[in-house]
Amino acid sequence: MKITASPAVTNFYTDILAHSFEPGGQRVAAATTMGKFIVFERDWDNNEAFTKMEMMLPNNAPALCLDWKNGNVGILLGAKSLLYLFRQDRNGDFDDDAARLTKFDVKYDVHDVASRGSGSPVIFGACDDCKVRVWDVETQKLVGEMTDHKMPLEVCKANDEYVVTGGQDGNVVVYDASLRSPKPIVSFDQGKSTITALDISSDSTWIAAGSAGAPIVYNLKNSAILPQISLENPNKIHTVHFDQMNTLWWGGGSGRIFKSLNLTEISTEIKATYGAATIFHVYSITSTSPNRLSAAGSSTGILFSENGDFFEGMVHI
């Protein structure tokens, strides 16, 4: 069934590099290569979407990354040397004070962002000068740096236990999210393959790192590396995602999304299509429950699935 959307959702055309469901909610935040940032609410029962907030970034800066995993932090958005935090009001809305927009002082391009919501909330940035930078959410001040990568960083993910980073040096580095020590807990070397995608499972047992073909999966409890899933005609991976049941999803340049229940074989292969529309390059996968999945990329549309086996609708933004 085709999803309808309010006119404000359909008034621009651009690729979507990053999007995310709010934690446990119905709303979706999306950011684009033309500097458009939008939050809309997905009505699953009536197949509708309604805009809650939208804005253009200064100079139409292309948004490279977005994070909305911590409701008590807000929405993080990185656009080259710009880093913004969008905070909701006490009612969970974005309506007053320009969506409570906070700009951070950043001197280097930020390729990815993540946050730790427990304790004193902080933001982690994967920067192009090979450093992981840490900012305090309340003061917007730089409070730490990690310097274990030798080439520009591409991706970072975090939860309340770990911070995981990857870059052009092929290394995956794991830190203690409490920042008690700037030294890595462990690191994995993937040689010359740039790490283009990362995620941490909800139980903090697994890390998935993507480069091409299928992701490399690490066990954080025993430092073991699972055998890599074999794929015919491997393509570059743009995004990997663990859902709440620790099912692994990934996508890239093939117009397909892969699902692995046991992390050792492909359970399902889904075409990133709805009707005549196809997302040939999948840049972002997000979920709000085990069966409610969304994908976005080189298209004006965001795909939605309630079954995890095919996409039943698309919101064109």
TrEMBL record:
<dbReference type="InterPro" id="IPR015943">
    <property type="entry name" value="WD40/YVTN_repeat-like_dom_sf"/>
</dbReference>
<dbReference type="InterPro" id="IPR051179">
    <property type="entry name" value="WD_repeat_multifunction"/>
</dbReference>
<dbReference type="Pfam" id="PF00400">
    <property type="entry name" value="WD40"/>
</dbReference>
<dbReference type="InterPro" id="IPR036322">
    <property type="entry name" value="WD40_repeat_dom_sf"/>
</dbReference>
<protein>
    <submittedName>
        <fullName>Uncharacterized protein</fullName>
    </submittedName>
</protein>
<dbReference type="InterPro" id="IPR001680">
    <property type="entry name" value="WD40_rpt"/>
</dbReference>
<keyword id="KW-0677">Repeat</keyword>
<keyword id="KW-0853">WD repeat</keyword>
